[in-house]
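Minutes, structural biology subgroup

Action item carried over from last meeting: produce the structure token record for NADP-dependent succinic semialdehyde dehydrogenase (Streptomyces vulcanius). EB confirmed the sequence was re-checked against the source entry. Recorded below for completeness.
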Amino acid sequence: MPIATVNPANGETLKTYEAMGEEELERRLQLAEATFRTYRTAHVVDRGRLMLQAANLLDEDRDDIARVMTTEMGKPVVQARAEAAKCAKAMRWYAEHAEELLADEEPAAADVTDSGASRVRVRYRPLGPVLAVMPWNFPLWQVIRFAAPALMAGNVGLLKHASNVPQTALYLEDLFHRAGFTEGCFQTLLIGSGAVDEILRDERVKAATLTGSEPAGRAVASTAGRMVKKTVLELGGSDPFVVMPSADLDRAARVAVTARVQNNGQSCIAAKRFIVHSDVYDAFAERFTEGMKALRVGDPLEEETEVGPLASEQGRADLEELVDDATRSGARVLCGGERPDGPGWYYPPTVLAGLTREMRIHREEAFGPVATLYRAADLDEAVLIANDSPFGLSSNVWTRDQAEEDRFVRDLEAGGVFVNGMTASHPALPFGGVKRSGYGRELSGHGIREFCNITTVWHGA
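Output recorded by EB:
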């Protein structure tokens, strides 16, 4: 894939970039290694001052970088501005909390009496240069939720961003540099995916994090495993949205629409499979379908637009294949389901019912505004359908019955269970999944410690 900005609203190529050559990559790897030697010793409070300055600059740039994101990957500009604001919030959160999250820990003296030590401490030390392989769907947020904790921990970052968001990638490097971070603390590598393997094999790169497709995750994990390097992977999801008879149906249906079409439906944590108890299935399906039909689809730079184009022509083709496969196998289209005429890579909000396990969309992630409806006879069947997926990123449960809530929290195979609300990421909450959604955690104290050397410091008597 060329490194280029292609406007998904009309298919126009706006700007192209040459991939970095071997000489430039070597210079940047040397710079990362050299910068880490000194940056690692900077006090966390000083790092925090720089991070706060970066957050302030991002706030000032919000409108401009929102338009860049929208032009590069098609998200509605209102959502793009919200993404920029969320990034600044996360940067401030880590600037304010990193010192306590990274503070030395001392086990209770009684617990280590028989260790022979007069004192034992656990210290969190940075690992070194960390390679981040990031996707296009949240081109700022995906990077910041890695970069803010990694930089606050004393690591330095090397960003390989998606090839269709190069302007956003370059903006991020410039943002940290303008904030006062030393040049090598955060660098954008304009490279194709084929160059990732060699960089990951380089001894100067100590760890990697990837958000993206399952094949990409397998490739990075395989190389990192051979090199014995730490990785954190977030590989997508097909999150269930379970509605039980005690739920507030009007609210559940409204939230369900937003949960499905946020970011034009191109979100790993978007609810994709709507599993509804038989007693309320028809009522929910009617409300949900009407809500999907009512969405305003159009130019993502217009303030009123709720759903813009998909990010790429191939992405739309992939989504169409999943819908066509389902309808050929008997799925019913309650709304949408047909590509509109005209320029741009648009696809309408779509609801499918009558799904079976043989359909591809049952087991594959639908990355676009397509929802699948399932009918569950009871709680047991709802849990079975929800867990009948190779993914396990997050989940949504709508019930006002405490026993039902307890059962879902216990039995759903996911990295998160959101009760009577929509899945969302937050700086203070750990984020990540199980099964083929990946491993490791981002955000919160768990996220900042993922790329730390957890060091035991033992003092003799």
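Discussion: The chain has 14 helices and 19 strands.
Next step: EB to file the record with the rest of the batch.
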